[in-house]
Every structure is written in C-alpha cells, then in structure tokens.
C-alpha cells in the first residue's frame, strides 16, 4: 500500500509538471504565434430567432500550434491576457474581421454585423479608440457593422475612463455588447451608466434551461430587463430545439450556437450566406 501510495504521488506530480510545462510552452509559443502566422479566425453566425436570418457573425480566434496542434482559446486567451500578447493579437483579429466583413459586403451579401471580443486588457490601452478608428479607416468597413463584445470585467477598472471610452466608440457608430452576461461580479448599475446595445446571455444558463428552473428564471429575467432597457439580447450556446422554443417564448431576439452553426472557416461559411 505504501509502495502504491508513493507511485500515486509520483504520477500526480509528473502530471502537474506536464501541465506546467505545457503552460510555459504555450506562453512562449504565443509570443511567436502572430509572426509565424499560426493564428486564424473562425466565424459563428448569430441568428434572428423570428426570421431565422443571419444578423451577425462572431469572430473567434483559432491557434494551430506547430507541436501541440489546435489549442483552444479558452486555454490560450487567459495566458495572452496575462503576458500582454492579447493586445497585438486583439488588434490583429479586429483588423482581420473588419477586412472579412468588408469583403462579404462588397461581394453583395446581405449586410451583417461582425462581433469581435475585446479583452479588458485592450480596454485599458490608452490608444484603444485611435486603434479602432484606424482599423475602420484602413479597411473601409462601415462602423455600424462592427460590434465589440466586452465582459463585465472591464467595469473593474477606472469606471469613468471606461464610460468615456465607450462613448467615444459609440460615437464612431460601433455597437457594444456585454458578453457572458450574468457571470461577472459587477452590479446592475452599469447597465444604466454604460452606453450598450445588447446583452449576451452566457451559455452556462442556456445549457441547463430545460432542467433547472433557476436558470430558466434567470434567463427570463435578463430578457425582460433587456427589453425594458431597450437592449437586444443574444442567447449563446443554443444547442437544441427545446432551448430555442423556450427562448422564443421569452421573446429573446437573437441566438448563437451549434443548433444554427458551429464557428467556421470563412471559405466554408461563404456558400451559406445569402445574397442581398
Ligand atoms: P465567448 O466569447 O463566450 O465565445 C463563445 C464560445 O462558445 C466560443 O468558444 C464558441 O465556439 C462556443 N460555442 C458556440 N456555440 C456553442 C454551443 O452551442 N455550445 C457550446 N457549448 N459552446 C458554443 P471558443 O471559440 O472556444 O472561445 C472561447 C473563449 O475564448 C471565448 O468565449 C472568448 O472568451 C475567448 N476568445 C475567443 N476569441 C477571442 C478573441 O479574439 N479575443 C478575446 N479577447 N477573446 C477571445
Ligand atoms: Ca464573445
Ligand atoms: Ca460567453
Ligand atoms: Ca468569454
């Protein structure tokens, strides 16, 4: 038993070592990923729940690591936020997504928004508004078709500064969405203070809506609150018909999830898009 215990311990530490080695390797790799062109963007449709029409696309980072293969953004984005690489990477994906959407517009497809995630770290950058302005100018993408997704965590920093930046972005014509809504720690007061256009209901609520009454209550509360405050609502992680029916009943305006489409390479997606 003693022997076994020791073995067990050894396995445990080597597993921990392995994980730490992987983190270090990812961290190092991230610094090179951009210049080595290992990053790409997938797009996931956002759908109007009444008409079934695509209203927008969320741009999502993909990383193909030379040794480790595909690494999930859930794994590498937090590391990029820690080491600061999310700033150049975030700028890169914003430019790429604007270029892509402009290309779709020019190809005569039905105009839609492109949604880009903005990390709190990017939000703290002094020149954020200038960077966004320059990217819109360079790409020619009309600001009205850009949607920036921020999380409640941006509100943890200098609130006055955050509000001022949001107003500057809004005055360019950009839409602002709160991502992962309901999972952060902030109070509801910023819904009044921040100039936002929509709330994205976190997929953790949608996942259990059919068997957890609390999650169903939370969703219907978010939707009715959003309606009263005149925000649109996008439900994330819609995977089945039952969830869709529930969201429709609650008059949720839009949805995103595997039921409609997984995130796809733009080449794969284009044939599914509708001509204007
Ligand atoms: P998020 O912003 O909440 O993005 C939605 C995530 O849900 C995506 O995961 C998407 O692939 C996944 N998803 C979509 N439909 C479904 C569904 O029906 N069921 C389930 N279970 N999941 C679904 P992904 O692509 O792995 O991204 C994970 C997270 O990484 C994102 O969560 C976001 O926080 C971060 N991320 C991705 N790209 C970027 C980026 O360009 N910048 C920043 N700052 N963060 C990013
Ligand atoms: Ca998002
Ligand atoms: Ca989310
Ligand atoms: Ca998120």
Automatic annotation (TrEMBL):
It comes from the Bacteria. Keywords: Coiled coil, Membrane, Transmembrane, Transmembrane helix. Residues 23-276 form the EAL domain. This is EAL domain-containing protein. The chain holds residues 267 to 542 of 542 of the full protein.
């Amino acid at each position: 038993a003693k022997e076994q215990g020791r073995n067990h311990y050894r396995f445990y530490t080597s597993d921990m070592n392995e994980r730490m080695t992987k983190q270090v390797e990812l961290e190092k790799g991230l610094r090179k990923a951009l210049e080595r062109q290992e990053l790409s963007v997938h797009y996931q449709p956002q759908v109007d729940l009444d008409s079934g029409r695509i209203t927008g696309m969320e741009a999502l980072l993909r990383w193909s690591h030379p040794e480790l293969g595909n690494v999930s953004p859930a794994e590498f984005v937090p590391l990029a936020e820690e080491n600061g690489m999310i700033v150049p990477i975030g700028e890169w994906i914003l430019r790429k997504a604007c270029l892509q959407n402009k290309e779709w517009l020019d190809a005569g497809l039905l105009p839609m928004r492109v949604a880009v995630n903005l990390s709190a770290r990017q939000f703290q950058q002094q020149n954020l508004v200038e960077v966004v302005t320059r990217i819109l100018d360079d790409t020619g993408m009309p600001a009205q078709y850009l949607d920036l997704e921020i999380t409640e965590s941006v509100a943890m920093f200098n609130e006055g500064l955050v509000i001022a930046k949001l107003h500057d972005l809004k005055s360019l014509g950009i839409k602002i969405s709160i991502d992962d809504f309901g999972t952060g720690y902030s109070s509801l007061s910023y819904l009044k203070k921040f100039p936002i256009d929509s709330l994205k209901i976190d997929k953790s609520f949608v996942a259990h809506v059919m068997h957890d009454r609390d999650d169903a209550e939370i969703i219907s509360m978010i939707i009715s609150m959003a309606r009263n405050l005149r925000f649109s609502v996008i439900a994330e992680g819609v995977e089945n018909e039952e969830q869709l029916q529930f969201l429709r009943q609650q008059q949720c305006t839009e949805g995103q999830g595997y039921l409609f489409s997984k995130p796809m390479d733009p080449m794969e997606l284009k044939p599914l898009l509708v001509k204007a």
